[in-house]
Here is the input.
Amino acid sequence: MAREIADLVVVGAGTVGGWASYFARRSGAKKVVVLERDLIGQGASSRAAGVVRAQGGTPATVKLGQWSVDFYNRQRDELGTDSGFRELGYIILAVTRRDVGEGLARVAMQREAGLDVRWVDAGEAVRLNPSLAETGHRGGSYVATDGCIDPQRNVRAYSLAMQRTNVDLRERTSFLGLRLSGGRVTGVRTPDSVIATERVLLTGGPTLRAVGKLIGVRIPVGGARHQVVVTEPHEAFQVERLPMVFDIGAGVYWRLEEDGLLWGMSNPQETPGPSREIDWPYLRKMERRLNRLVPATKGLGIRKAWAATIEYTPDHFPILGPAIATDGTELRGTTIASACGHGMMWGPAVAKAAADLALKGRTDLVDVGDFGLGRFDEQGRSPFIDPIALPFPVSPDD
Here is the structure.
């Protein structure tokens, strides 16, 4: 039997793995194989809320957001299909005086990074989004070009992109480990064979921690329940454009969806791990908060609700860089990539940077110096923190 050889093997066919395989082919990799334990996009990629923003908490994440928004906007011309991006605008809401102080400092940083962002007071926030209550908040930062995508349409878009560039997708095929020689990867083991390769990209969302264990690499990625709700229709939401809103203090966000409102949240107090069901008491608690800020939602029925497991890192930043074994040695030729629960928001940019790193060992898209595994200590702690993130648990689950 002839030995199979690939220029790149990608583990995971979620948003990051899917788009990375497409970018790798566009960058000249001749044979790209993608291994997916289940079916393409079956995890969080098809269950996300689809919010996309360039309002990052650091200059690097601003860049990731800007690049992703630009990519979503040019998809139709580049691919002949798209992820359904809608420009709605986004208000990151300030409720307390502390929110205002932190928000104004964040706006100054974002403007320095080249983002067209401005601070709006409570009155202007209500004019931009008439469904907002007139009281109970202090305005917030606003970017007109932020928006949302359709998560399932996004899975379709990268699936078609993979097909059109002849990416070799292998569903229901598990990654079992690496073959190494002299500290460098030489192959990938699957249940069926060993694929000879000198380049491997490990993605995997909430399962990335388990993937790392297979090769002796500690990847501090956890999984946490994230809940999303879509209300029944209301005339307040039957409009073409209404800015999305993130109540950053409470960790609840909302946007237009199907003539109603889609809103989502995560509970930082619950035990990390895979989600199995909806937490109705916490959902109702957040619903009461939403009712105060968006009066039209009071008494609205729920059209649908779901829970999904999404990944997070202790500092809420992505992971982009080489695999480092527990003894501190680098597994040459092996790259780690995770958008840490921001797959729709940063996914395309993280995927492009990951493909660059896997193929060339560097990327011009963003400075990834602080995104590597080396930032974590032995307990998985990081010296950084993204100030704009859902309130996930502090430490990944073991």
